[in-house]
Design goal:
By secondary structure, the chain is α/β, with parallel strands linked by helices. The chain is built from 13 helices and 21 strands. It has three domains: 202 residues, FAD/NAD(P)-binding domain; 109 residues, FAD/NAD(P)-binding domain (3-Layer(bba) Sandwich), CATH 3.50.50.60; 106 residues, FAD/NAD-linked reductase, C-terminal dimerisation domain (Enolase-like, domain 1, 2-Layer Sandwich). Helix 1 runs parallel beside helix 4, helix 1 packs parallel to helix 9 and helix 3 runs parallel beside helix 6. The radius of gyration is 24 Å and the shape is globular.
Length: 465
């Protein structure tokens, strides 16, 4: 039995690393165990590499419209291997920063799988040693869910897609959430013919319906085949590729990717030995301050299945460390969390959807505008941008902001600040527009749309003219 620590963190992702560093900064003796690579899903096989691939894919559109802006067309060719090598180099750099940050904070970083022997004891599988801890934090994240169908093992998930030796000519992607639509858009632009199979009637189930319809139309316009109301029932080898059976037919393809959701990574952690309870989805049950049902054990991030976003895991880890080892007790606020979906066009959203607002408020107003962003004015591209505000008519408070188009993610971060502060539509209107930008639509829409009306204006225009 080694010397006891004040905090033992299981998991070296964003939430766990943040908690370890902050706790150590408060003077705690901290150890952290990670069995794979530091940075977790976000850095190694999620947000960061995905965004790099998204940025690479968008050059396809830029090259296509360059001639409309006076550039002589070039013979541009895409090299998947070169991108993969550059991506790996950046991930190695980021992982090094995580390791260095832990070392500078004085955290003992251990390359090992860890599990609980009890509420205050952690066993390291690499050495067999046990470590006593006053507090244990579980931050093991989530894993891709595989369907329970024949041939499921033949499909890849988002974990494997980043390291493909080459891109296939055709790919079937099953799913309609963040991961499925993001990879559908980026792979299509990198030269893969993508077929998206989704059991629902419209992708991105929890988003505003106007955003969902707008993105669906844009994806189809880009050449992505979307088969909704359909479920994959089996995957088998066929020729040099695969034949995907569905409840409505079959599809021949070169590769299959399943992106039907993620599940909390709780298997093999010894939770039952410590008295840590799980919910019906297998997530660790926690209170608002991230306490589990075991007296000395806390959990943050995707393993708790609250809001599965990296910035939320970081905030939860920070709150835990400040509350337990610092002078300030606080909890992460899970309301009005801004989100981005890095499709092309991308989505940014914060606050209530129109449907949720109508359920909770007696009267609401909807402000909606669709237009061609200036980058498309000189080209033949049909892609439009959508800007939408949902407002409580009685208080004038802005309840939701929903965007789909270029730089929507950058815009929504800034829009989330006034929404979180309780800003009113009148205060939005009093803000002078930055012209010419797409973001100016947030402060220039004056008339709410009728319940059965489409947005006014469908062409590129000068809002201030």
């Amino acid at each position: 039995m080694t010397e006891p620590v004040d905090l033992f963190v299981i998991g070296g992702g964003s939430g766990g690393v943040r908690a370890a560093r902050i706790a150590a900064g408060h003077g705690a003796r901290v150890a952290l165990a990670e069995e794979y690579r530091y940075g977790g899903t976000c850095v190694i096989r999620g947000c960061v590499p995905k965004k790099l691939l998204v940025l690479a894919s968008r050059f396809c559109d830029e090259f296509a419209r360059a001639a409309d802006f006076g550039w002589t067309p070039v013979d541009a060719r895409f090299d998947w291997t070169a991108l993969r090598v550059a991506k790996d180099r950046e991930l190695a750099r980021l992982e090094g920063l995580y390791r260095d940050g832990l070392a500078r904070a004085g955290v003992r970083a251990i390359a090992s799988r860890a599990s609980l022997e009890g509420p205050d004891t952690v066993r390291l599988s690499a050495t067999g040693e046990c470590v006593r801890a006053r507090r244990v934090l579980i931050a093991t994240g989530g894993l891709p869910l595989r369907p329970d169908i024949p041939g499921a093992e033949l499909a890849i998930t988002s974990n494997e897609v980043f390291d493909l030796p080459s891109l296939p000519a055709r790919m079937v992607i099953e799913g309609g959430g963040f991961i499925a639509v993001e990879f559908a858009c980026l792979l299509q632009r990198l030269g893969v013919q993508v077929t998206l199979v989704y059991r629902g009637d419209l992708v991105l189930r929890c988003f505003d319906d106007d955003l969902r319809r707008h993105l669906d139309a844009a994806m189809r316009e880009a050449g992505i085949v979307i088969r909704t109301g359909e479920t994959i029932t089996a995957i088998g080898r066929h020729g040099g590729g695969f034949r995907v059976a569905t409840d409505r037919g079959s599809i021949d393809t070169d590769l299959v990717m399943v992106a039907i959701g993620r599940v909390p990574n709780t298997q093999g952690l010894g939770l039952e030995r410590a008295g840590v309870a799980l919910d019906e989805r297998g997530a660790i049950r926690v209170t608002p301050d991230s306490r589990t049902t075991a007296a000395n054990v806390w959990a943050v991030g995707d393993v708790t299945d609250r809001v599965a976003l990296t910035p939320v895991a970081i905030r939860e880890g920070h709150a835990f460390a400040d509350s337990e080892f610092g002078d300030t007790r606080w909890v992460c606020d899970h309301e009005d969390v801004p989100v981005a979906v890095f499709t092309t066009p991308e989505i940014g959203a914060v606050g209530l959807t129109e449907a949720r607002a109508r359920e909770r408020f007696a009267r609401i107003d909807v402000y909606r505008s669709r237009f061609r962003p200036m980058g498309n004015v000189l080209s033949a591209r049909a892609e439009r941008m959508l800007v939408k505000l949902v407002v409580d008519r009685d208080s004038d408070r802005v309840l939701g902001v929903h965007l789909c188009g270029p730089d929507a993610a950058e815009m929504i971060q800034l829009a989330a600040i006034p929404l979180k502060m309780g800003a009113t539509k009148r205060q939005f209107d009093r803000t002078i527009a930055v012209h010419p930008t797409a973001a100016e639509e947030l402060v220039t829409m004056r008339e709410p749309v009728a319940d059965d009306a489409d947005a006014p204006g469908t062409g590129a225009r000068c809002t201030l003219c």
